[in-house]
Amino acid sequence: SSTTYQKILSDVVDEQMNKAGFAANRLLRTEFNHVTGEAEMESYQDSDVAKYRYIAVLDGKTSEICRDLDGKVFPVSERKVGVNMHPMHPWCRSRTAPVLDSVVLSQHTRWSRDPVTGKEEKIPANITYREWEKRWKAKMEEASSMKRKLKKQLKPKKNLNLQKIWLSHKQAKL
């Protein structure tokens, strides 16, 4: 019927529009990251900054390539988008920071997100993604272990339920 055809066509158009919206959002976010990266590099060059540090977002969504690059230092003159400069991939959220002789990283902080609670916290800026990851992996394993224990404790006992059913059936016969 024409109603079925219209419904199918409507569903196809909706699906394509959602895909187009997703692709447009991905493109805008990635290009925005590229433009901000170029602006960072231009400001470093204008300020005679010779090197920059790659900074990945400290949360569980960060890509493997950005995790590996986090904390590494590169010459501004050798920056290459997709190699040692963000964006490394679509949706990339990484940034850079100038490497200055007068700045001691251990005296500064950076933001991270606790993977268990979701709360933001400040940690020393000299901690790399891989160091942070070791710390949160232990937390995640502990949280998973607690979750398994709770599930086991809360899981109904099959035999106990069968006993209750049998007892209620027996009482009904009396």
If you had to describe this structure to a student in words, what would you say it looks like?
This protein has 174 residues and is an alpha+beta fold. The chain is built from four helices and five strands, in the order αβαββββαα. It has helices at 2-46, 64-69, 129-154, 158-173, and strands at 51-55, 73-75, 95-99, 109-113, 120-124. It has a three-stranded antiparallel beta sheet, covered by helices on one side. A two-stranded antiparallel ribbon has the order 4-5. A hairpin with a 6-residue loop joins strand 4 (109-113) and strand 5. The mean pLDDT is 83.
Topology:
Elements: H1 2-46, E1 51-55, H2 64-69, E2 73-75, E3 95-99, E4 109-113, E5 120-124, H3 129-154, H4 158-173
Antiparallel strand pairs: 1-2, 1-3, 4-5
Largest sheet: 3 strands, antiparallel
How is the quaternary structure best described?
Answer: single chain
Mean pLDDT: 83
Percent of residues in beta strands: 5-15%
Poorly predicted parts: none
